[in-house]
Structures are given as structure tokens and as C-alpha cells.
Amino acid sequence: MSAGPEEVQPRGPARLADIGRLAAFSDGVFAIVITLLVLDLRVPEYHQGELLTSLVREAPSYLAFVVSFIYIGVLWLNHHALLRLVRGTTLALSWINIGILFGVVIIPFPTAVLASALVDGDTDDLRVAVVMYALAAALMSAPWLVFFAYLRRHPALRAGHIDQGHVHAQEARPITGLVLYGLAGLLGWIVNPLLGLLGIIVMIIYHGVTSEGLRTGPLQWVRTGRRG
Amino acid sequence: MSAGPEEVQPRGPARLADIGRLAAFSDGVFAIVITLLVLDLRVPEYHQGELLTSLVREAPSYLAFVVSFIYIGVLWLNHHALLRLVRGTTLALSWINIGILFGVVIIPFPTAVLASALVDGDTDDLRVAVVMYALAAALMSAPWLVFFAYLRRHPALRAGHIDQGHVHAQEARPITGLVLYGLAGLLGWIVNPLLGLLGIIVMIIYHGVTSEGLRTGPLQWVRTGRRG
Amino acid sequence: MSAGPEEVQPRGPARLADIGRLAAFSDGVFAIVITLLVLDLRVPEYHQGELLTSLVREAPSYLAFVVSFIYIGVLWLNHHALLRLVRGTTLALSWINIGILFGVVIIPFPTAVLASALVDGDTDDLRVAVVMYALAAALMSAPWLVFFAYLRRHPALRAGHIDQGHVHAQEARPITGLVLYGLAGLLGWIVNPLLGLLGIIVMIIYHGVTSEGLRTGPLQWVRTGRRG
Amino acid sequence: MSAGPEEVQPRGPARLADIGRLAAFSDGVFAIVITLLVLDLRVPEYHQGELLTSLVREAPSYLAFVVSFIYIGVLWLNHHALLRLVRGTTLALSWINIGILFGVVIIPFPTAVLASALVDGDTDDLRVAVVMYALAAALMSAPWLVFFAYLRRHPALRAGHIDQGHVHAQEARPITGLVLYGLAGLLGWIVNPLLGLLGIIVMIIYHGVTSEGLRTGPLQWVRTGRRG
Q1: What ipTM describes this predicted complex?
Q2: What is the pTM of this model?
Q3: Is residue C9 part of a domain?
Q4: What is the SS3 string spanning chain B?
Q5: D5 CB within 8 Å of a chain C CB
Q6: Residue A6 within any structural domain of the chain
Q7: C105 and D34: CB-CB below 8 Å?
Q8: What's the structural domain count of chain D?
Q9: Domain span at residue D71?
Q10: pLDDT digit string (tens) for D186-202?
Q11: Touching D: C residues 24-43, CB under 8 Å
Q12: pLDDT of residue B135
């Protein structure tokens, strides 16, 4: 308990434990949300001998399930890469993370609405459901933007091998999300709900492809480990 | 495996592993509870073409969802800070933690009652729901008080960088919760349920702001950096 | 990657990671089961202005919730102490653990049956529910017994500071559970369901008190750390 | 912070942390799915005094629950062994893992369909349910095959003590699953649904027995101890 190395070591792990519990909590939320989606795949009511017909009738709702499953997978990969940018957390960053999780947690609701509209609704209902899904996805981008902006302004939180330019460049992703999910919603509202849904799927693929971050310059941040 | 430093090290990690499983179990519970809330956001029954009207009709129940989501976020941040106070657990402390988790686990129930009363109930029902929520929140403060009191009486469990005065000062928080959530319930019962709900929201914000602990003296424990 | 210490270290952690994933998986199951219990606390259907009456009518079912919450808390503490006995896992031990988790996972079902019988059932229904709960609890003891017996026959799996006599002594606990939960069921069937329920509660308290293991001799196993 | 050993160490743990979050996320999903199964064991509606009769009537559906519980246990053990083959993850491997989890997450749906068909359906419904379960199980094998094939082509991802031949040999397992679950479905469709169900159960046992990997040569990778 003298000064020197002993003084330093217990603090380092304490820091890591912090981001560790935040990561564990977030992983728990992602794991639960991705699993809860299946709860909306309910056994349809059916008369004896008509199970197959009833299942086929529900089939369009499976599309909503698959889209949301992939969406949450994408979000988890993005979140995974997000936490690799920081080496500790503050109260503010924990709150921003709770904001991110809020967006994740609500996904099953627009998913269920979309599934219901695909099976039981008319075009008006489908329009409402697609716009609702797009709005939820657009708004979900906001706390990600706050995260990158906060990290840019607090360089002390950055993990050692991440440079400032990389963090700054990432802000383009949630802004793209905010704008294009919004446009997908508009498209679904004005033109055609299925076109809006297609727009949402394209955006999910975009976030899947860029989940490890937008490249900045000659790949300098991707190389794991520091340069020395 | 001689005596000396090697003898000390295995005890440290063994202790930490203990608190590790307690933290993991608690994080799991928090993650599940915060995610289960969305299960009460059900797709309303609707006639074709009336999805939007049905969703709008349910809108007040979303308020209950948002309040409880933030409440559990606040509780998780408080719990996160709580476990940083200790460096190991005992059977008694584990039981106190289970008491804390009991309070967390029941939140979805008063939330669902509140959501139902906001949509389908009259003023009497809303009064019952608000008082129930306030009572649950007030009683939930009790195990937190027991935790701080127990930790004060067992200084050997304190993490190295935490001083006695800090632990003692924290007892003010659950006492404030016990009294003021109770008062919010009374306010909701006697004066107006929405005023009681407002009192609950104010208290949740209070616990959010103080989640890292009440400051004691000139910030000596908050400094996260190393002194060196 | 020469021979010597580097050769030893990576294997040690690999072992620990094994029991680590088993513990994490188990903690996840415990956390989910203890939280899912609240899903059976549903908002009752009610006419406007009669929320309070409906909630009071459901009150007996809350007893089932509280008993099962404490029961799973007790089981988690027991499981926590169980995994501290071993320093690694084998395929057989993993399967025994899955057997233990099977017992944990089904608890919400007899709990829901008991809650339903307490509110809507007559004495016959309550008798069925109590016997079902007691049977589930009795059968749940079986894999714990297998765990202790297996560990006794495979001393290489024992954690360093645990002696053979301690493991052997613990077999008394699941045997007590098997017999006395069975007797509580018989009591509930023949004499009175509420008496059977009381017997179950007494047994849960017994497992709570002995969760860290039956003492063997002069406390030699409780001392954390090895003697040197 | 000089070059040399310090340069190496941060890379190891950073890699391990990666696979750590992937493992934690996967464990969370497995734990939730195995626990959610019990949600389909609902308290039957019953008239006072007829709880026992109603429970007995539902008994066949418990078979579906038990089979799926063991199935997910088997899948978790397989996944546990799978992640021990690698020492880090890439974006592609993370996506393959999400594909594996997709197969796990949908299990409760065919399980619920099967449980429903066992209680309420006729032979046609049971045939549909068994084929659906077999198809889900067969398709679930696909991402496992992709995992092994990817690992074979990216030897740098292999954990140090795993040799190329072992990884290659494991591809036989998902191929067996793909073919034989498919055959079990055909058997259930053409011959007899219960025979198909039996085929599924046999396959689950096969995957349980081989969960730690098919042996290649004189057990060189199974030896868990150190060489000395």
C-alpha cells in the first residue's frame, strides 16, 4: 500500500471493471431483446387439421422477425465496436449508453406492430407500421451521435490506439441513419409502405457493413495494437 | 507458492470473483427487467385501417414505460456505484443484494398497473396505481439503507479507496427515498394522482443525479485519476 | 512461445474460462428465471373504478411469487457456493449442471399453478398445486446429489482449498431436500395443502441457511485462501 | 510502454476480450432461450376442482418442452466447445455466430407449435409440427458448417492447441445434422410423425455425445492437462 506501482495497479482494473459492467449490462440487454422477438411468433389459433394453413397465413409476419433479428445483430456489432473506442466510462457516458439501449429495447414493439400490419392490416395500417419502424430507427441514431460527439470532446476517454480523426469520422454514421431512416419513413408514407420497408432494410445493411467504423485514411486504426 | 506476496494475491482475485458473480447476476436481472418492460407495450387490437387510432389511444401507457425505463437505468447506475464500495461479499451482503433485486424485479408490475390505469382507468384507478407505484418505490429503498448500514458496521468489506464517512453519508439517500416516495404516494392519494406521479418522477431524477454517491467534503473520493 | 512458464499460463486461464462460461450461463438462467416470475403478476381485468378491488382479489397469488423469488435466491446462493468447490468442468459436470438448471427453469410453472390455485381454485386444486410444487422441489434435489457424489469421486476437479470430507458432508443437503420436500408434499396431500406449503417454506429457509455448505469440523474449509 | 513484451501483451487480452463479449452475448442468448421455453408451459384454464384433469390433459406438451430444453443444452455445450477452437473473432466470424444464434433463438417457436399439435392437433397437424421442427434443426446446422469451413480457411484464428485436422474433421457434424434432421423430417412426413420425432431425439443425443468434437487420431487435442 505504498506509493508507486501498487498505487497505480488497483486503479487501472477498477476502470476496466467499470466498462466491463457496462458492457455486460449492454450485452444482456441485446441478448434479451434479440431473443424476445421470437415471443411474437405465436402459435396461431387453428381448427384441427388446419395448422399448416394457419402457419402459412402468418408467414408475412416472419419477415418482420427476420428483419429485426438482423437489425439487433447489426446494432450489437456496432455497439461492440463502439465500446472498443473507450477505455473507461463516466456518468455522462453511462447515460448516453442507456439512451442507446433505450433505442434497442423498443425494437420489439414496432416489430410486433409491423408483423401485425403485414398479416391483419390494410395498406393504411402497413403505412403506419412502416413509418413507426422508420421513426424508431431514425430516433435511435441520436444517442449514437451524442456518444461520438462526447468522445470527441473528451479525448481522455479514448482507448490508446484510437485517434481523434477516427472518432470524428464516425459521426457520419448516425447522421446518415437519422436522415436516411427518416427518408425511408417518408417514402413509406407518401409513395408505398413496402418501398419504405425496403429503404429500412437497405439502411440496416449499411450499418452492418460499417459496423466496425468508417475507414479514415490508410486504415490506420484498424490495425490492432499500438504502433510503438 | 511460497508465503509472502503470492499468498496475498490468490485471496484478492478469489474475493473479486465472488463479487464478480454477484455483479453478473445483478446485471442480468437489471438487463432483463429493463427489457421486459417493453412486453407490456402490446399491439392493440384494431379493425383494419384503424391501427393509428388504436396506437394513439394507448399513448398514455407509453409514459409509464418511459418512466420505468429511466427508473431502472437510474437504479442500475446506483447499483453499479454501490458495488464499487465493496471489495468482496458475505452471505449477509448477498442476501441484502437479493433484497435490492427484489425491489427491481417487481417494477414491471406497478408499471403495467399504471399503464393500464392511464389508458383504461378513471381517477380512482389512477390514484390506486400511483400510490402502488410510490409504495413500491418507497419500500425498495429499505434494502439499500440496510446495505449502507451493514457496510458501515463491517469496514473490512469496504474497497480500499472508500472512507468510512463516505459510506455513512450515503445512508441519507435511501432515507430520502423512503420518505419522499412515501410523500409522493400520499400526495397522489389525497391531492391528485398526476401530482403524485410528478413527485415520483422528481425523485427518480434525484436518484439519477446522486447515483455516484453524495459528495462528502472536498470531493476526495470522486477523483478517478491517480494521485501519483 | 518457448516451453516453461508460458506453456503453463495459457492453459490455466483456459480452464478458468471454462468454469467461467458455465457460471455465466448459469447466472444468466438464474437471473432470467427470478425475473420471469413477475410476468405472472398480471394486471387483472377490471371495470373502471374497481382496480383496487381486483388487485386485492389477486393478493394471495403474490404469496406464490414471493416464495418462489426467495427460493430462486436461495438456489442461486447454493449454486454460487457449489461452483466454488470446483476448479474446472468436464462434459459430465456440465451435464449435471444442466440438470440443476432444468430444476431451476421449471419453477415458474408450479409457481403459476400455485398462484392460480390460491386465487381461483378450491381445496382440491390447492392440494394439487402444493403437491406439484413439492414434487418439483424434491426432484430438483436429485442433480445436486449427483453433483456432490461426482465431485467426491473426481477429486482432481476440487478447488485447492476444499477437502474431501467437506464435499462428502454436503451430500446430506440434497438428500434432506429430496426426503423433506417429499414429506411436505405428502402432508399437503393427506392433511392440509396450507400445511404442505408451510413445509415447503421451512425447507427453503433450511437451504437458505445452509447455502454456503454444512460445516464439517472446526470450520476448516470456510477460511478463504490456502494455508501454505 | 517500450517495445518488446509489453507490445505483445496488450494484443492478447484485447483479442480475448473480443471473444469474451461474443461469448457473453451468446451465453445470454442461450440462457434466455432455455428459460423462455417454460413460458409456453401455461396454467391451463380450468373449472374449480378440475386443475389436475386439466394439467394431465396438457401433459403431452411437456414432452416438447423437455426435448427442446435438452436440445438447447446440447447446443450450448457444442457452442462452448466451438469457441474454444478460436482465439479471437473477426467481423465475418461474428456474423456466422449471429447466424448460429438465429437458429437457437427460433427453437421456442417450433417447440410451441409441436406442444400445441401434441395436445390439440390431429395427425395432420402433428405431421406439420414435426416436419417444421426437423426443418428448423436441419437448417440450424448450416451456420455451424460455415463456421468450421471459415476456421479451416483462416488458421490464424485457431486457438494455439487446436490443429488443422481437428477443425476439418468437425465439419462432419453439421453435415450429419443437415442430412439426418432432414431425413427425420421426411420420415415424419411420409411414414409417421412420432417416428420423425424419435429421429429428432436420436439426433439431439448424437450432438450431445459429440459436443466436445469428433475425436481425430489418438486424442491429441482432448488432453486437457499440461504436457510438462
Answers
A1: 0.82
A2: 0.85
A3: no
A4: CCCCHHHHHHHHHHHHHHHHHHHHHHHHHHHHHHHHHHHHCCCCCCCCCCHHHHHHHHHHHHHHHHHHHHHHHHHHHHHHHHHCCECCCCHHHHHHHHHHHHHHHHCHHHHHHHHHHHHHCCHHHHHHHHHHHHHHHHHHHHHHHHHHHHHHHCHHHECCCCCHHHHHHHCHHHHHHHHHHHHHHHHHHHCCHHHHHHHHHHHHHHHHHCCCCCCCCCCCCCCCCCCC
A5: no
A6: no
A7: yes
A8: 1
A9: 17-42+50-224
A10: 999 999 999 999 999 99
A11: 24-29, 31-33, 36, 39
A12: 94
